[in-house]
Amino acid sequence: MFSPAIRKPHLHRREKEEATPSPPPPAPAHSPSPGGFALSDRPATGTPAPWTTSSLLARISTSKQTDRAGDSDQIQPVHVAEFPQVVRNAQANLLQRNFAGKSMLVGGIDKETSLAWMICGNELFVWSYLAAVAKDCLALEIPSSLVGDKDGKPLSGNQWTVCIMRWHSSGPSTRNSGDMLHRRSSTGVILCNRRTQAIAYWPDIYDESSSKGPVISLFGHSDTSASDAISGCYRFNSLIAASVPGAAHECIAIASEPTGALWLFQCSPLRIHRREVHRDTLGDNGTDHSQKNNGGRSLVWLPSNESSEAAERKFFLLTSQGIQCWGISLLHGINVKILGSQEIVGSDGELGIKKDIAGQKNIWLLDMQIDERGKEFNILVATFCKDRVSGSNYTQYSLLTMLYKSNQKFPSENNVVKCERFLEKKAPAQVIIPKARVEDEEFLFSMRLKTGGKPSGSVIILSGDGKATVAIYWRGSTRLYQFDLPWDAGKVFDASIIPSAEDRDEGAWVVLTEKAGIWAIPEKAVLVGGVEPPERSLSRKGSCNEAVAEEKRRSQAFSTSIVPRRVSSEAWGAGDRQRPALTGVAQQAVVDEEAEMLLNRLFHDFILSGAVHEALQKLRVAGAFEKEGEMNVFVRVSKSIVNTLSKHWTTTREAEFLASTIVSSLAEKRKKHEKFLQFLVLSKCHEELSSKQRAAMLSVMEHGEKLSGMIHLRELQNALSQQSSSTRLSPQSKTPTAGALWILIQLVGEKARRNTVLLMDRDNAEVFYSRVSDIEDLFYCLSHQLRYIITGEEHPSVQMQRALELSNACVTLVQAALHYRAEYKDWYPSPEGLITWNSQPVVRSGIWNLASSVMELLREPGSAGMPMKSNLWSQLEGLTDILLEGYIGLLTAKFERGEDHGVLAQEYCERRDELLGSLYDLAKQIIEAKYQESSEGNDNPDLKESIFREVTSPILATAKRHEGYQTLWQICYDISDTVLLRNLMHDSIGPHGGFSFYVFKQLISSGHYSKLLRLGEEFQEELANFLKDRSDLLWLHEICLNQFSTASETLHTCALLSSPGEDADLTSTRKSLSFVERRRLLYLSKIAATAGKDVDYEVKVAQIDADIRILNLQEEIVQHDPEYAQGKHASKLLPPSELIEMCMKRGRELSLKAFEVFAWTGSSFRSSNKGLLEACWTNAADQDDWVKLSQASVSEGWSDEVIQESLQGTVLFNASRLCYSSDAVVFDGTFEEVLPVRKEDVHARGLEAKCFSVEEVLMQHDAFPDAGKLMMTAVVMGKELSYAAPADEPVDMDS
């Protein structure tokens, strides 16, 4: 009914096609339908026949059509797979037995296992529908006791239902990968006769060791049921099943009757136990047969990830008025109980659907589905209405979406009625068809709902008479797409979704037909081919309103002023359909399409004539140079060249023919792509792209790289196939390509087929080798699905062989691409800031995952012989090289772009060191094995060194190229080759000092200082830069180089370091220097300065002497500190200001030491700490009782000699003599420059604005009014008397 719309070409394109028509080949005059069914008056609209499928159209090349599949192909359904031959034979047998008048077939698709099933007569067939050619189809014989007919004739197809369970499935990833490889997994099947309620259970259909038939349970009086007398009148209308955790091949099944009764089946390999867990809801055991469909409608599991535990599951039962929530415990006895119930059809429209409104006669809840996340409930609703104007009756179909509260807590079973609502309405019900044909209840209850397909949010509705309709709310309106074939393909049995290779919830819709196999509906077919809801039914019958609608369409065809009507399937085919206005995005798409068509035409002309015909100017005008990257038309044409599909059917061909076809196709693509590059150069488009759109030009060249890699990969696969054929031991094996590379190609090809339904009828290998531009998918599979190729259950030698094959494939592919890049380097644009395909995260992740697996295998002791390990080691070396090259390319691009690359650089370094370390560890094993083999038991160090150099040479080259300093050091250290070490230090000049710094660091860590200094003779500047933060070692290097003055400065600096934190230690934690060590370093500095004899060396010596004095003072001062005994100041160098303050706090004994510290610190310190100096004079005055001394001199009448003798014992006198006497020793200047003695000296020197005098400082003392004269006499007398400083005792250099 709802046929897909055919996309119309643009007006200018149609005009060109009319001028030069090139129609596709016409369909045969007589084309019998599959299986012998045919309709002579079948319309030409609808789903195309196999001879016009998109897969075949993609192989047809015309003069005005590019090689790539056009968008128009994507609006046609795609033939996915034919029925297995055994199914075809069974169908033919039914026809011969004259059962054609009755529908004897039934089938379905299991979404979880991707298995299709079909019942033909007394046989149940199960196979995987994902393969283009169905393989391993199982035929299960249905026991005659299950049939129930006395005449032995097969039952009508709709009497059967099937549930399939896969055992030991750990999750979607495991399931999808196993399906993609088409591997057999342990699978159980439940078959139910819905009319007789008989059950058959096959615990494992793939168990070849078991020849027993299924376990059978027939409905009888021994079963625990309260309604045995009437249960046989009603068939099951829904059946769900689930495995029992922790039990081998045990499962449970739950079935519902239209009356609302629930049955539980506990299935095991030995028996099936059935019991009724809930009585019917109609009362009187359902004796009112007019209400037989008012009970249960459908059952559905809540996804297990939403349940609290795997042993606790929830399922929901759709009833005539609402939804019931049930819980089941799968451990310690199967316990089923109702948790809650919620009304959907009631008086409150906010809770669901409001009933008893005007014109509404009845409401049916038909079916229910839950999304993969367990969040949304979709309910199909049919409403019987009466038009109040015309009085006619009609049915309205709608879709109600409810949101599930996952954190809902349910009360006990006794309070179910009081349960809070566990569903809330997401939005008003979406009307699918507003006015449809009135159907009987039997047809309504036969409808089934499916969710989860593409487009996102779409649903598919299956009617009992075999019609499939996709509904989607898109761009503000509901659109319907009806699957229909132009020949009689029979009913649509079931619908599902193609499982995504990325474990996404959504995939393309796929339908199982009665006679035409399995078909997929592309996303674009629904969006473009869908129509707004007409006044029709969801059944295969015609509508009673069709004649009226057709007359209305005819009348509107003659009027152009009428508002556009609803779009129907016929409206899409109208030739005079009004063209909608183009938006900005659509206009740009038209421009791009026209530019691409022009480029294809110019390139086609170039192939024929070799002339470019001013192509550059034409393409500029057409806007071909406006887009960058993958959207550029040159990139798109280049991509279409390398991705061209072969133009012939391959699904029925032999493997040898397919192999030769792939090789010829790749060679043809390479030739055509090279021709395209020549066209770009001759037309000067290459120059334009290289200067203005470098990323686009790089993509074009990368297509050539990938194509070259794919060709070499195909050659490798052919070589492996031949090798496998020549060494195969089992004559029963017929597949020459069963290795790891073949499995990888199957995974990548299957991933592409599932994501692109147009490729579903192609072989996986053909798809893989055709999609050259998507070669990154190979590395994606290595990153995410390697564990399904190299499995831990296999023998280690088999795992190593598979890892070897995959590594060889990756290295071959990437190296071939890099060789192409080097060969055509002049064709590439400037690389600044461009990221190549082999540097992409998905490629690096895939290579690293494979390399990690190889390293893990190599670490296992005794896993394989040394020859195998040696081969695998060589491949790991290649993986290391291509992986590190990818990192370098990306790091360079990020650096040129100015982007942050710190995390990436750290990842690169960590993986580099791990790879090189693993390579070197195994290399030493290989060296030892080769040496033992060659030496024949004799000790030959020269031979061992020769083998060592030979084996490690590739590792050495890689480590040198990628700054693997740890590996370089280990190699040089193990063979004690200082010549090699020095050469590497000269060659490896990288950031942070390069390899030289690493060597220096290793020598310091091991305490080999003599070797370090010997290297410093050759690497003088490098070692000096390295030891810049290690002054304790730098002076030794400078002494060795006879740089005495520099060494003196280094020693001086090192001696005065306050703590090791100021001197960053690169190797270990060092202790603080003691006073003795500091003094020794200062004396060494003095000796070095004297030896250097620079121009100002005397000044340096004086400074060193001053620092020695201060160091001695500190050692003396801190001994008076109580905290010194606790070791606080035992080695820490204190600043002079802190020493002075410490002296002032310790009274008379240290008050003079403060002035000594001032004397040896220098003029700058005295000037900047003048206030502290004044405080020292005040503190000196405080040390004597000047008032008492003055009173005694007066009362006792002291003579001048007595006064002088008494004042010489005061602190002021001694401080003045120490600072101001003629022979006072003061470093760098005098105290007079900072603080003169008398006030008049200040005025004489012109320092009024700068400082006070000692006299002015003492005038502020409390005793100055009474003893000021005496105080100044002491100061002046101390200045005039000479001061002899005590001579320093010699210091033992070794003390």
Automatic annotation (TrEMBL):
Residues 995-1120 form the Nucleoporin Nup133/Nup155-like C-terminal domain. It is found in: Nucleus envelope. Coiled coil: none annotated. GO terms for biological process: poly(A)+ mRNA export from nucleus; protein import into nucleus; transcription-dependent tethering of RNA polymerase II gene DNA at nuclear periphery. Residues 21-31 have a biased composition (Pro residues). Residues 72-519 form the Nucleoporin Nup133/Nup155-like N-terminal domain. The keyword Transmembrane helix does not apply. Its main location: nucleus. Keywords: mRNA transport, Nucleus, Protein transport, Translocation, Transport. Belongs to the nucleoporin Nup133 family. This is Nuclear pore complex protein NUP133. It comes from Aegilops tauschii subsp. strangulata.
